[in-house]
Amino acid sequence: MTGTPLVPTTRAAVLLALAAPRARVIAAAVPGAWLVAPALGAALLALVVADALLAGRLLDLRVIVPADGEVGEPAPLRVLADLAGGRPGAVEAALALDPRLAPGGRLLLRLKPGDGAWQGAATLAPTRRGTGAVSEVWLRWTGPLGLGARPHRRELDAAMRVSPSLAAVRSPALHLFLRESEYGLVARRIRGEGTQFEALAEYQPGMDRRRIDWKTSARHTHLYAKEYETERNNQVVFAFDCGRAMCEPVAGLPRIDRAVSAALAAAYVALKGGDRVALFGFAARPELATPFVAGTRAFHRLQSAAAELDYHPQEPNFTLALATLAGRLRRRSLIVVFSEFPDPTSAELMVESISRLIAHHVVLFVTLADEELETIAADAPQDMPRLAMAVTADTLLRQRQLVTARLHQLGVEVIEAPHDRIGTRLIDAYLRIKRAGRIG
Q1: CATH assignment of 1-163?
Q2: Which end of the chain has fewer CB atoms < 10 Å from its terminal CB, N or C?
């Protein structure tokens, strides 16, 4: 660390710039005093050197990068610098890192004196999944006058693995809901719905009349109804469109990451309820297909697999992807498709491909509400360009409504909601389908 160079600061450059015209005035007014100008320059240079030497020397520099993080969730980063032999005035650090960890791939920190070292902290907010490298760090500390500084550059071999967000899974509301569901499951085993026969019970007002067992009722001269138990061990597949439209951001995060977070929350509920879950990802061709897993202990396998869903700047091939998925399934399953339809042509191909799944499987289509289009369409236009934008946005929204209406006609349940409510809507729809016995 002893070879750290000495450099002037911005303050020193400003002082030199202010002194130069005054020195010229003195030299012009008193020609014999021209030596004043170089003397002032030499004096300022001596102050810069002395101030930089008073800044002290660097003993050690550490950058603490979290090994793991979640997309969209804050992650702390710390920089520690051990300085000795001086009186530093200001200490700053700059980091070069992957753009998925910080905007522009650059992060600036101001360090403050702490317990035995100068410390600086920043919060990373990853915007994409994958591995984000932290490659370089620059440290710069000035002397007490702020005229001289000492810089230091070091290459780093640090990285943070960015996984899908599990904020919804850790939500207290979700765990409270699961506890209440488990309590009811033990008490009455979800009787009255489903497809697996459980027992006969006296008919009560409000029961479905189609469940009345007429033979038993005639034998006992009293109305009895069949109760059913919701089946377990159902197969649930979360299929992700990883194409161009799903890579577009919503509230700072790509749509695919919003979809993955919602799917993992629903997958946790499904595993908790005794069902089996698999993930499927596709773009121009199938990219990911996991085996079915059961039990919450296998949830980490789903999280690891979801982290491998890449971002593809290409149009999805629904025909190939959904045909491949259908060929992998050997029994009736719930298929949850996360996708987006930016134009009528891609929507037509998507609807045609989904229609082939309806005969053998239950299909649930999930898409994020386009809040930007809704805002543009709802704003009162102030001029012709804004009017054209509003008309275009309204046309696109109408096209979306036509596509969702076609899916409804096919028997596909469609969920379209803002990103912060898509997870709860998906869980509600899954539980409703499961309790109705539509999967088995």
Answers
A1: 2.60.40.10
A2: N
